[in-house]
Amino acid sequence: MKNVRNHLIFIFIYFFVSANLSGQPLGNPLGKPSGTNGDINPCEIELWEYPRWLEPGNDIDRFAWVKRQLKLFQIENPQIKVKLTELSWNRGDEKLKIAALGGAFPDIAPGTVPLLFIQEGLIEPIDSFMEPGDAEDYLPAAKQAFTVGQKMYGWPWYLGGQLLYANRAMFASAGVILPLNGRWTNEEFVDSLRNVKMNSPKPNCYPLGLYFQKYETANFPFAFQFGGDWITRELKFVGDSEETLKGLSWIKELIGEGLVPPDTGGRTSNDIWTGFGRENRIACAAFGLWGVKALTEKYPMDFEIMHFPAPSGKKSPAFLGISGLYIFHRDDANRVKAAMRLARFLTSAKNQRELSNYTQFPTRKSSGNIYSGNRHMSRAWEILQEGRTVIPDPRWGQIDEEIEGAVQKILLDRANAKDAMEHSHERVNSLIARAKSTVGEDIRKGSWIGKLYLAVFPLLLIFAIILRQVHLIFLLPALTVLGLFLLYPLLDAMVLAFRDYRLDEVGGFTIQNFRNALHDPKFLAAIKNTGLYTIVVVPANVLVALIVASLIQGLPKSLKGGFRAAYYLPGVASVVVTAMVWRWLYNSEVGLFNTILRGLHLPVIGWLTDPGVAFYSILLTGVLRSPGGAILIYLAALGNIPKTLYESADIDGATWFQKWFYITVPALQHTTMFLLITGTIDALQVFAQVLMLTDGGPGDSTEVVVHRIYTAAFRDFDFGAASAMALLLFIAIMVVTLLQRRLRTVDLELA
């Protein structure tokens, strides 16, 4: 009885804990805390931050400034402990979004106004925490940027934007004198570019560098030369308007004249910066405010900051970026109060004066002119005061991705401007309409699969006790891990594929996700590319592994170990690391391949920027990847082939090729089939090299299935569509695997 009682107590505790975990909310409803006046009880808060500037005497740590400020803050507030999490600029925002919607958000996070989080009720308004004079001290643009409705949802910190930089020396060498006021009309701008093109002393030079990629607004003013836009504040798409199409045609004319690189549609900001800032092969290009510091210190250049060109009497405003610190809501009002105090401290007027190290403008008037006497920053401030921002909508990321993809295709001659933008019109309207549709239950209440799992599991445990199979309890840890981290997510994802998902809410059951996937041009392009990658890369890798293993097998025993290691070790390197090496080799400006072509006086190739070449570059990385694992498997199989077969062949006078083709290859057919199946499964899931090299571009020329699933899930937060795509991929892998096995079975039966 005592043992039974203990077992029942254990079951009760397990069930109680499980039930409490099943419905754990991802976020809390918005509440109104008290102000910052009064003492704060001891607590610990967490700050997530990006790397900023290097402090004097520090050449490595770009978090040194914030660490210094945290020490000063904790001296003044010893009862508040602050934990710093260091983000990276490479997809740190995605990490933050995933963490926030997963309920693992920090107390303070950096960035622009968090519309997505505000929409989900995760952000605390700061109005009741501001002290007298705070609201009046902020610049109007800064207040407007963080105001949603009638409330401010963040502490504005710094203001920056996109600027047009001109290499004064390149223009001067062509006899072009830049306007003193920094303004030029369309005609003056184009005439200046033509003079630079005609009189450029360097080969492979271009007067202007442009780039259109996701989340980059630097070159929008060129497309909006004639009053166009992508989408209005009222969420009306105008990318196919006459004004916008005229601006895109203007850019196409510049490309046609050779004033802009022909592969502009596929170039990234890094490509253009390399050509402008490092190689001095581009005379004029648009970058962020950070370019001032880079061109003054790291890559010294005689440069000037210019207004974007516009028709006479009109302006083409630059795009602004205003960043700050925002506070996530928690039920613990004391913790929220502590986070507000830290955020206000970090963004105070005193601390904003140190933004001169970051080449950004302060958002508080009381910070004063921190760039007194700096000609470049004075011109930048003049330009940015006329600036504008993108639409304040949480769907902007998806809208921008659709538009940028269409622009890339237009500039690369892959689509007619009018047709491409009309197609984008349909896609953008679909996004807007879908967001406005009604939704169902809150997913934060817990998945019914999770509740079913947590309800059935204790019952199975009771059943084991009744049958006196108590030893099965020792399987509990392993089964729990297997269930929670494999079976439960798998089943939940399969069900989610048939649900209408919106951020953290799900609607009723539907098959619309599959219809959307099969009508998504990016997903269809991904299927085509993934299939081609698999057909080319898998046989090539298996064949190379077979040939190399056969050659190694014939070596003396003392040499085999060295060659095995030589071929296997490259495969140990991370795919990300090898992709970065390939990215350098493929770089349009300083890459090894194009450097060799220039040395041979041959035209350079846009390895990753030309949509007709980019995917073949991805294929090359797959084909030339060292098949170290496959070689080891083949070597193990080669050691099991009876030597008597080769001895008999020698007696019959067979050549080395005949022995290899008629004995070795047939004897390894089971190993070959195994490698083909596993290689196919791996190739159908290709992802890392595409993400690192092209991010699916230019356009959708290198899009693959897993990358499309990734973007749908973790950039667009459309987990229903992503789950549907993942389920289709799972079915495809299963069908291909079964087909391969079936073909092998038929082959054996015929033999």
Number of strands: 14
Number of domains as seen in the coordinates: 3
Task: Indicate the CATH architecture of the largest domain.
Answer: Orthogonal Bundle
Looking at the structure, the CATH topology of the largest domain is: MetI-like fold
Low-confidence stretches: 1-37, 438-445
How many separate helices?
32
What is the strand content?
5-15%
**What gross morphology would you assign?**
globular
Major beta sheet summary: 7 strands, mixed
Overall mean pLDDT: 84
CATH class of the largest domain: Mainly Alpha
CATH superfamily of the largest domain: MetI-like
Distance between the termini: 65 Å
Indicate the percent of residues in helices.
40-55%
Radius of gyration over C-alpha positions, nearest whole angstrom:
30 Å
- The structure class reads alpha+beta
Summarize the entry for a quick read.
This protein has 751 residues and is α+β, with helices and mostly antiparallel strands. It is built from 32 helices and 14 strands.
Walk me through what this model shows.
The protein has 751 residues and is an alpha+beta fold. It folds into three domains: 177 residues, 3-Layer(aba) Sandwich (D-Maltodextrin-Binding Protein, domain 2); 204 residues, Periplasmic binding protein-like II (D-Maltodextrin-Binding Protein, domain 2, 3-Layer(aba) Sandwich), CATH 3.40.190.10; 233 residues, MetI-like fold (Orthogonal Bundle), CATH 1.10.3720.10. Helix 31 runs antiparallel to helix 32. The longest helix has 33 residues. It is globular.
